[in-house]
Amino acid sequence: MSTITLHNESENQLKLIEALLKELNIKFEVSKKEKLTDWQQKQLQEGIDQANRGEFFTEDEAEKILDKCFK
After folding, report:
1. What is the span of the domain harbouring residue 54?
2. pTM of the model
3. Which of 10, 38, 51, 69 is 20 to 30 A from 59 in CA distance terms?
4. Does residue 7 belong to any structural domain of this protein?
5. Does residue 1 have a pLDDT over 80?
6. Cβ pair 8, 14 in contact under 8 A
7. How many domains does the chain have?
8. Measured between alpha carbons, how far is residue 4 from residues 14, 29, 32, 35 in Å?
9. DSSP string of 16-71?
């Protein structure tokens, strides 16, 4: 058995996908919850850990860095 994750952008897309799967007699389940990938979870935890260690920029510092990058 395999798992395919689809990311629909509208309720209409979801209905069309469901109709197609039903027509093809493919079992499926719909989860309205968005799940984070392992990579996303790792990145979030890394950011939390950095913030807990005090390794972050203030809003003013971040704005200055962004201004330099995009000027």
Report:
1. 35-71
2. 0.43
3. 38
4. no
5. no
6. yes
7. 1
8. 14, 11, 15, 13
9. HHHHHHHHTT-------S----HHHHHHHHHHHHHHHTT----HHHHHHHHHHHT-
